[in-house]
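Encode chain A's predicted structure.
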Amino acid sequence: MASTSDIRNGLCIKYNHDIFKIIEFLHVKPGKGPAFVRTKLKSVTTGKVIDNTFSAGHKIEDIRVETHKFQFLYHDGDYFHFMNTEDYTQIQLTEANLDNAGLMKEGQVVTVIINTEDDMPLSVDLPASVVLEVVSTEPGVKGNTATNATKPATVETGTIVNVPLFINEGDKIKVETEKGTYKERIKE
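Encoded structure for chain A:
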């Protein structure tokens, strides 16, 4: 059993007969009244995100988890296939278990969180950022940079990312995986 002081991003808890992963939290201590923790929880079974508030000191049932490195192999319709980099066992997960699945390249190493009670994979964490190649985008108009103007660009995984006007086809860009946003252009 854990309490609200143990809440952190990535913590997996049992709540309302389901397993949730904490994706955001905020400890609030108002001037009047008791302190509380405002959280955003993502169901690892359905992918549904809910908001919940826990009062300070509330007991929560945390789940013991292990993290393992897996390599993303391929995607076939409904399932994403991964291979453990230590013992070469393979697992398949649905898109509900993945955050920003469209940013994963084949061969990329990700962290899979596994429930120690039943050895079921709960979620997949991508690295903080990934480098992807732009495969199609409109050419930028010279002189149209007075504001932070952006344009849509399709990257090699098929995902569309808003990028600055100076990005062209064939450029490699760094994308922040948590929000799916452009971070910088990579020079080779």
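The mean pLDDT is 85.
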